[in-house]
Inverse folding.
């Protein structure tokens, strides 16, 4: 039996109206494959799909909202909020970080808000035609 992880939202939460994605990965250490991300979906659909996929398998599904942000500054603001909310890292977290590789990247030109919105329109059009 699999595991489903998601936010526990109050009934009137505006977060529920955001698009949601499902990240599905191995539940244990026996399998070594990269998790997959599916979506976007409405929250109820994402939860239902995730439950259906992990119900009879040793998989973990994380259902979480997408946070559409139209420019780099808005993304930076979200990062700062996340950093401010985080607790100080523990020694255990430092050990886990050793398993990850990092690479340095040079920042490119961030797309403008208009470009991001045009991209969302293209994605919505493609999703509307998927059968």
């Amino acid at each position: 039996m699999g595991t489903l992880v998601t936010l526990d939202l109050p009934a009137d939460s505006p977060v529920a109206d955001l698009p949601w994605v499902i990240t599905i990965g191995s539940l244990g250490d026996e399998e070594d494959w990269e998790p997959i991300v599916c979506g976007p979906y409405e929250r109820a659909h994402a939860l239902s799909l995730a439950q259906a996929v992990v119900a009879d398998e040793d998989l973990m599904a994380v259902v979480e909202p997408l946070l559409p942000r139209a420019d780099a500054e808005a993304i930076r603001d979200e990062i700062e909020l996340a950093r401010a909310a985080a607790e100080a890292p523990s020694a255990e977290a430092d050990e886990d970080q050793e398993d990850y590789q990092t690479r340095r990247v040079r920042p490119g030109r961030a797309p403008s808000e208009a470009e991001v919105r045009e991209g969302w329109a293209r994605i919505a059009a493609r999703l509307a035609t998927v059968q």
